[in-house]
Design brief:
heterodimer, A: alpha/beta, Pyruvate-ferredoxin Oxidoreductase, domain 3, six-stranded mixed sheet, 7 helices, about 20% strand, globular, B: Rossmann fold, Rossmann fold, five-stranded mixed sheet, 23 strands, about 35% helix
Chain lengths: ~190, ~625
């Protein structure tokens, strides 16, 4: 498989770690070479968190060249737009959770809030496909990451990786009740998500 | 999949996706490392997390969080003198703290061998600078191995351990942030039963006292040792040449993650220079470098941060009368930031424009995306503290920060803690600022973990020299910033220690009691000499996580009662919890995903419009 780059961006506390690991392991279960990297640092303190996955051959560094991601996953509206601006490739795809965690300048009234229309417009400018994921019905918002994974799987956005591979990845990472709950969300958004 | 601890302890060979930091822990187990000590700091704290994932009774080595990096180094050194292979690990700037002991280590005959794993942070992702510790290794005369990936981190630790044991010396494994935090599939080897713990220190293995003339003899030996390390590096083939069919007589010498950046850029290039990848960055293997220079017309030395390799290689080429054109750093920016594939591409394109195929970037967005600075978590006790302390201060008062979550107090809307150097520096700086200063009162902040780490000497100096400052000790009971590691405060209560130092004015309250805290700070500011206010509240991130795991946990949150809200915006603008959402038109609501229902915000609303969820109409 030729190189395929995935750029995931969100806010500390949104569960980007599990999402990134599930994607990486899913890709590995599909027999595809992959390397990934997370940014940690001040991630827990409501700052930006980024995870990058590079798969296929040949890939070397886990870091993706600017605007060279085939797939951008935005876990929050402002960050989805930032991801589109920094990472999205012409003709790529952007899947984003339609949730807003207002950054400080917005809360202080210094900067306008970004809307889903802004994100969709940014995708249009680079002829990328925007896929909006709605999670309003989800009771535990800490599992929004699984809704995003469900959408990625439903739309077959990573070549050569299908649902069974992600199922196996979740089994690797979770167990018991946590596995059951996360999988239920993953399955729901795989089957019925918008 | 097995749990991390179980996985790491497996005796048989296995293949698994692990993070660089975790892979190093497996190498510690395989090599029979017997003692490990650390102080938490990014990018290496996941090494400690991986160690702690092995139940203590099954752990094949002793591990401790030491009180600081210097002590960690000393503990590992002491254990190694007993004949145990030992390891100290910490972050880049931790080496500054450890330095007084660290520079001595190459003089010593470390019978068990010692590996120091150091995480440099190019790009200053989570550090106060991006210092290049290779400068220090040269001065300290230690061998340094530098992996480019998690797989190499695992392999190179084993090399470092073997070399340390063979030469009874210290070897550094130099990691950088994105090597520590990268994940890839690695094939791990089997290992034998764990090695026995040893206690056979013998002075005859020394000398271990480097005084006067002895220090010079010991230095002579360390020069010899480093030469022998060079031979080991040569024999093990850690430095490798990667040749290409169409190099056009051009070459690149590089190391670490920059090597992988180069490979990615060369995939997009019209021709591919040969590469000399250095796995050992100190001492340099002169022969392989000279032979590489000899077989190329033009060679670029590509290294992030400082020009350590470049200066040495240029000197080497000069000594050997080489005619090869040598290129290195030319711009100020070449010394700044991580050599990501992007930065590497720009550098290569500037030098060899015919080689790199740069692709067109899409147009920039017509409007900016608002910045998202890190901030204190919902419910954080420090937020209540800053909100309350601000009320006690005059505009001209000076506030001095220290390292920790409370450093984020410099952000709006609090804007407190105007100066920051490093761990434990606040009381010293504040003391200096207080000299000749009768008008502006000086306040120092200090976290509890930092207090034990490096805060004590500064505070004792303040007492000893009778400086006039107010210290606000921000006590949250943990090392929060790096992931909630324990610290000495669990055994030595902060207040007892302060009393023991003879400080007369020690006031204390929970930060959620904001009006009381304001009063205590006002009182404390009126006292001549050193006075301390302990502003305490448990780290709510840690507390909430623990609470969530308890059976019957019910999530709560606050709401804004629209009947009472008068849009004074104290909650969103002055208290500034990320839970508060500003809606178009100026009304405020709360974010149910973020709010933890602590209610510390309720006292900040003059209209009493912030109410607990169930109370809302």
């Amino acid at each position: 498989m030729k190189p395929f780059n995935i750029y995931i961006i969100g806010v500390g506390g949104q569960g980007i770690g599990l999402l990134s690991q599930a994607l990486l392991r899913g890709i590995d279960h599909a027999g595809i070479n992959a390397i990934a990297v997370d940014t940690h640092g001040l991630a827990q303190r409501g700052g930006i968190v980024v995870s990058q996955i590079r798969c296929g051959d040949p890939v070397h560094s886990p870091l993706i060249l600017k605007n060279n991601a085939d797939l951008v996953l935005g876990m929050e509206i402002h960050e989805a737009l930032r991801g589109a601006s920094l990472a999205l490739k012409k003709g790529g795809a952007l899947v984003f959770l339609d949730v807003s965690w207002q950054p400080l300048p917005v809360r202080l009234g210094q900067s306008p809030e970004i809307t889903r229309e802004d994100v969709i417009r940014a995708c249009g400018a680079v002829r990328a496909i925007p896929i909006r994921v709605e999670t309003g019905t989800l009771s535990d918002t800490r599992m929004q990451n699984m809704a995003l994974l469900g959408a990625v799987s439903k739309h077959g956005l990573i070549p050569g990786v299908d649902k069974a591979h992600f199922d196996a990845a979740l089994e690797d990472l979770l167990s018991g009740d946590m596995l059951k709950k996360n999988r239920a969300v993953f399955d729901t958004w795989f089957e019925e998500g918008e | 999949m097995k749990k991390t601890g179980e996985l790491l302890m497996g005796k048989d060979p296995f293949e698994e996706i692990l993070m660089g930091n975790e892979a190093v822990v497996r190498a510690m187990i395989e090599t029979g490392t017997k003692v490990a000590a650390s102080y938490p700091g990014s990018p290496t704290p996941e090494m400690a997390a991986a160690i702690l994932s092995i139940p203590e009774d099954q752990r094949p080595f002793y591990f401790e969080f030491s009180v600081n990096e210097k002590t960690a180094t000393e503990v590992a050194f002491g254990a190694a003198l007993n004949g145990n292979l030992s390891c100290a690990f910490f972050k880049s700037v931790g080496l500054n703290v450890a330095l007084d002991s660290f520079v001595q280590l190459s003089l010593m005959n470390i019978t068990g061998g010692m590996v120091v794993v150091l995480g440099d942070d190019p790009g200053a992702n989570s550090s106060q600078n991006e210092q290049d510790n290779r400068n220090i290794y040269k001065m300290s005369r230690v061998a340094v191995l530098e992996p480019a990936s998690p797989k190499e981190a695992y392999e190179y630790y084993k090399h470092a351990a073997a070399l340390a044991v063979k030469e009874q010396t210290i070897v550094v494994l130099r990691l950088t942030t994105h090597v520590c935090h990268a994940r890839q599939k690695i094939r791990f080897s089997a290992y034998e039963n764990s090695v026995p713990a040893r206690t056979n220190f013998n002075q005859a293995n020394g000398p271990y006292i480097a005084l006067t003339a002895m220090a010079l003899d010991m230095k002579r030996k360390s020069v010899q040792k480093l030469k022998r390390a060079g031979q080991y590096i040569k024999q093990t083939g850690l430095n490798k040449e990667i040749t290409s069919k169409n190099s056009r007589k051009k070459g690149i010498i590089t190391s670490g993650l920059t090597f992988l950046s180069v490979l990615d850029v060369l995939e997009l290039s019209s021709y591919q220079p040969d590469i000399l990848k250095l796995g050992a960055v100190n001492p340099l293997e002169e022969n392989i470098i000279l032979s590489f220079l000899n077989s190329h017309e033009e060679v670029l030395i590509l290294e992030e941060l400082d020009d350590i390799l470049e200066l040495q290689i240029k000197a080497l080429a000069y000594d050997h009368g080489m005619k090869t054109k040598l290129k290195g750093k030319t711009e100020d920016e070449d010394f700044v930031g991580e050599y990501t594939p992007d930065k590497t591409m720009d550098k290569l394109a500037a030098l060899w424009p015919d080689m790199v195929t740069q692709y067109p970037l899409p147009p920039a967005l017509p409007f900016p995306v608002p910045q998202r600075p890190a901030q204190m978590c919902p419910g954080c006790g420090h937020r209540s503290a800053f909100f309350a302390i601000k009320k006690a201060l005059e505009k001209e008062d000076v506030t001095v920060a220290d390292i920790g979550c409370h450093t984020l107090g410099y952000m709006p809307p609090y804007e407190m803690g105007e100066i920051l150097l490093c761990m434990g520096a606040s009381t010293g700086m504040a003391s200096g600022l207080s000299l000749f200063n009768d008008k502006k009162r000086v306040v120092a902040f200090l976290g509890d973990s930092t207090f034990f780490h490096a805060g004590l000497p500064g505070l004792i100096n303040t007492i000893f020299n009778r400086h006039n400052i107010t210290l606000i000790l921000m006590e949250n009971g943990t090392t929060a910033m790096t992931g909630h590691q324990d610290h000495a405060g669990s055994v030595i209560p902060v207040e007892n220690l302060l009393k023991g130092l003879g400080i007369e004015s020690i006031l204390s309250c929970d930060t959620y009691n904001q009006s009381k805290l304001t009063e205590l700070v006002k009182t404390s500011l009126g006292i001549k000499g050193i006075s301390v206010v302990i502003a305490k509240h448990p780290c709510m991130l840690k507390f909430t996580r623990q609470k969530r795991k308890q059976p019957g946990f019910i999530r709560t949150h606050v709401d804004i009662d629209p009947q009472l809200c008068n849009q004074t915006h104290d909650c969103v603008e002055r208290f500034g919890c990320p839970t508060f959402i500003r809606k178009p038109g100026g009304s405020v609501s709360t974010h149910p995903d973020l709010c933890i229902g602590d209610g510390s915000c309720r006292q900040t609303c003059p209209e009493k419009a912030v109410v607990f969820g169930k109370e809302a109409k």
